[in-house]
From TrEMBL:
Pfam families: Sulfatase (PF00884). One of its GO terms (molecular function) is sulfuric ester hydrolase activity. Its cofactor is Ca(2+). It comes from Oceanites oceanicus. Belongs to the sulfatase family. This is ARSI Arylsulfatase. CDD domains: 4-S. PROSITE patterns: SULFATASE_1 (PS00523), SULFATASE_2 (PS00149). Residues 50-361 form the Sulfatase N-terminal domain. Keywords: Calcium, Glycoprotein, Hydrolase, Metal-binding.
Length: 573
């Protein structure tokens, strides 16, 4: 494999580049609670089900946390991770909806029909209603459940909303990305609407408040109004640090020396989010929850490198099945952990949080058979071996097939044109088109020539459709061993075949013009009536409504918008 190495920089020097220490106890600009800095946690009794706070960040790159050697200041995350358990063999999905669906259901995408792309705002699609969700299981166990932040699991019917899927309260956005201040989201030219909701109502009165501030303050209010004697689950899905790159000026000023403007704004957003996490932690202590709490921190996918994120030294970026797209930042902080202050290399996947948290809550998993996740609490808390030995990253039959893939290349076992990826033990196999495959150094190195990001570009992968890596020995995916180890390739291909036999049809319906915010009071929200009859078939195409009379009322409008959408799409391309 021909690789052009960066000259003049060692991996160690780049990983340690620009990291600055920061005062953990410095007053926060987003604080709305106070905490005694000398407060000490009591020895955990674990006599009651623990309070669970799950924090999910959006598009935060693997490199973009202080303890991974970043130049971005994240003192809160650094300290929480240092005092807890860092998960350094932790995997997520490469894009938003898949990670969120697997967290909420404990199942791989192939088992929910969401194995292709994301749920888009105008699609009549959502997390399948027959799935029993994590918050629903926690409700069964006696928990009060709350969600704050980004949903992105569909909303075309009211039954799809967070408050119908197990959350007692919800404040946040339903779509994939919104303006941090105005909460507007445009799904193409002229298809714009407001997207901030309180419960099932549009929260017009919250416009103008920076979402990271708003969400942290909401968590504090929930904790202040609840009794720490009763178990609580709060799912905090920050919008940060997804585009658009927006941050209060005082945070941007801290990074004024950064030459890359996108990286500067992105860094400010990460630090602002870090302070929001600090205030949530302070609120847990102030209101008496902390001693019996479990805080889980996770990213949802790899960083988007052309929007300021960095996954260095991993290969790839958001939207790819290279390690830069699927290896996440993760840690657990809790007084209940038996072996604290350590790094865990136990294999953990985002589906594992479902059975792990339900088990911690003393809930019942017997009526949700077929989960793809495992209870990994013993591995996290006690340092025991992880029960997980493999991960299906995904099988996407709808993604553009690789030009040079074939069934013959897959030993007659698997069509290597199909995008798929799996890890078994220390081995990882990719087929089809895994996505953008470069190694991209931090964007703060602005003295490189204009094409500096190509210094380590692959030169021999253009005609390939299958790769094999020993991830334990080669975490940066530099040495393809598919030719040297055909025996391992065959074994992993057979595992793909096994999983593919259990897959359900893809749910990826055509967009519907009725979803346009102009028909819904100017806001994104449910638009299909509860008695709409819609069926699905293999390729994810939406069948015609059985109610022909109801369809006729909007047939002319549907035709108009289909033509308009075709024109807009051609202009976009």
């Amino acid at each position: 494999m021909a690789i052009y190495a960066l000259t003049g920089f060692s991996l160690v020097s780049l990983l340690s580049f620009g990291y600055l220490s920061w005062d953990w106890m410095k007053p926060s600009l987003v604080a709305d609670v106070a905490m005694d800095p000398m407060e000490k946690s009591l020895p955990p009794a674990f006599a009651r089900p623990p309070h669970i706070i799950f924090i999910l960040t959006d598009d935060q790159g693997y490199h973009d946390v202080g303890y991974h050697g970043s130049d971005i200041q994240t003192p809160t995350l650094d300290r929480l991770a240092a005092e807890g358990v860092k998960l350094e063999n932790y995997y997520i999905q490469p894009i938003c909806t898949p990670s969120r669906s697997q967290l909420i259901t404990g199942r791989y995408q192939i088992h929910t029909g969401l194995q292709h792309s994301i749920i888009r705002p105008r699609q009549p699609n959502c997390l399948p209603l027959d799935q029993v969700t994590l918050p629903q299981k926690l409700q069964e166990a006696g928990y009060s459940t709350h969600m704050v932040g980004k949903w992105h699991l569909g909303f075309y019917k009211k039954e799809c909303l967070p408050t119908r899927r197990g959350f007692d309260t919800f404040l946040g956005s339903l779509t994939g990305n919104v303006d941090y201040y105005t909460y507007d989201n445009c799904d193409g030219p002229g298809v714009c609407g407001y997207d901030l909701h309180e419960g099932e109502d549009v929260a017009w009165d919250q416009s103008g408040k920076y979402s990271t501030f708003l969400y942290a303050q909401r968590v504090s209010k929930i904790l202040a109004s609840h009794s720490p004697k009763e178990p609580i689950f709060i799912y905090v899905a920050f919008q940060a640090v997804h585009t658009p790159l927006q941050s209060p000026k005082e945070y941007i000023y801290r990074y004024r020396s950064m030459g890359n403007v996108a990286r500067r704004k992105y860094a400010a957003m990460v630090t602002c989010m870090d302070e929001a996490v600090k205030n949530i932690t302070w609120a847990l202590k102030k209101y008496g929850y902390y001693d019996n709490s479990v805080i889980v921190f996770s990213t949802d996918n790899g960083g988007q490198t052309f929007s300021g994120g960095s996954n260095w030294p991993l290969r790839g970026r958001k939207g790819t099945y290279w390690e830069g797209g699927v290896r996440g930042i993760g840690f657990v902080h809790s007084p209940l952990i038996k072996r604290k202050r350590r790094t865990s290399w136990a294999l953990v996947h985002i589906t594992d949080w479902y059975p792990t948290l339900v088990s911690l809550a003393r809930g019942n998993l017997s009526n949700v058979p077929g989960l793809d996740g495992y209870n990994v609490w013993p591995a996290i808390s006690e340092g025991k071996e992880s029960p997980r030995t493999e991960i299906l990253h995904n099988i996407d039959p709808l993604y553009n097939h690789a030009k040079y893939g074939s069934l013959e290349d897959g030993f007659g076992i698997w069509n290597t044109a199909v995008q798929a990826s799996i890890r078994v033990g220390e081995w990882k196999l990719l087929t089809g088109d895994p996505g953008y495959s470069d190694w991209i150094p931090p964007q703060t190195l602005t003295n490189f020539p204009g094409s500096w990001w190509n210094l380590e570009r692959l030169t021999d992968g253009l005609r390939k459709s299958m790769w094999l890596f020993n991830i334990t020995a080669d975490p940066y995916e530099r040495y393809d061993l598919s030719d040297q180890r055909p025996d391992v390739v065959r074994t992993l291909l057979m595992r793909l075949v096994h999983y593919n036999r259990t897959a359900i049809p893809v749910r990826y319906p055509a967009e519907n013009p009725r979803a346009h915010p102009d028909f819904n009071g100017g806001a994104w929200g449910p638009w299909a009536s509860e008695d709409d009859a819609e069926d699905w078939e293999g390729g994810g195409e939406l069948l015609k409504s059985r109610n022909k009379k109801k369809k006729c009322k909007i047939c002319k409008l549907r035709s108009f918008f289909r033509k308009l959408n075709t024109r807009l799409m051609s202009n976009r391309i």
